[in-house]
Amino acid sequence: MNGKLAGKVALVTGASKGIGQGLAVGLAAAGARVAVNYKIDAAGAESTCTQIKQGGGEAEAFPADIGSKSAFEQLVSQVCDRFGRLDVLVNNATRTRFGPVFELTEEDFDDVVNTNLRGPFFGSVAAARRMLGQGGGSIINISSCAAKLMVAHHSSYTMAKGGLEALTRQLALELAPKIRVNAIAPAPTSTARNRGYDPDYDRKWGSVIPAGRVAYVQDYVGPCVFLASDDSAFLTGQILNVDGGWTLRGFTPDLSTFDYSHDRSRE
């Protein structure tokens, strides 16, 4: 395939649905061969691969719990064995355990931190070792605007995403000049998961965003391709808020009716 990412190999974690799926398809459309990671949603990962292949791209699904250091390291090895290299790592996989701070358990805490922060740390280090051996690469962390704007019931998630942004800056410094590390911070986004919290999610959140709407998965594809490509060769350690101006205002809708009761069963 022709495109800005022709000849590159990208690994996207948590790419069986939502933002991760959209980013995997978008990176492939820009020419990258894509490793589609998933934890348990094999059907979703295969759907992502099918979309990529139907568009003329190349993709393969790789199961792994990226919250595990050894599993993430093995994932990186498997991708490099299959595709021969790794140029782009997108740390997208995320876990949520929303609820009042007094109700969060140690299990909730560990699940959120392992997936959102611990995994990306060890996975990025493993990927960086490979990238340094081939001359360079790009690591893109998917954070959240919640890391800047305190949102009710998001304590462990906000903490983990804030750590991910600090990790972004730290690795950008330590891995320069060959490896660039940046982050995208999404706004409230129209996904099946978020609409599960409240069927009126899109309208409620769109009412507090200056752009007048929530984000859609496709809104993140262009920024991700940019950060993965040589177009951003002089950009590292940056947090790109793709938020329709939400962080300029910082209001949230009334969250009291949002149903977070199914969070523990989500994968």
Explain how this protein is built:
This protein is of the alpha/beta class. The protein has one domain (9-265): Rossmann fold, CATH 3.40.50.720. Helix content is 43%, strand content 14%. It is built from 9 helices and 7 strands. It has helices spanning 18-29, 42-54, 69-83, 106-134, 155-175, 192-197, 201-206, 221-228, 246-249; strands at residues 9-12, 33-38, 59-63, 88-91, 137-142, 179-186, 239-242. Strands 3-2-1-4-5-6-7 form a 7-stranded parallel beta sheet, sandwiched between helices. Helix 1 (18-29) runs parallel beside helix 2, helix 3 (69-83) runs parallel beside helix 4 and helix 4 (106-134) runs parallel beside helix 5. The longest helix has 29 residues, at 106-134. The radius of gyration is 17 Å and the shape is globular. The two termini are 32 Å apart. The mean pLDDT is 93.
Short description:
With 267 residues, this protein is an alpha/beta fold. Helices cover 43% and strands 14% of the residues. The chain has a seven-stranded parallel β-sheet, sandwiched between helices.
Question: Which terms would index this structure?
Answer:
single chain, 267 residues, alpha/beta, Rossmann fold, 7-stranded parallel β-sheet, 9 helices, 7 strands
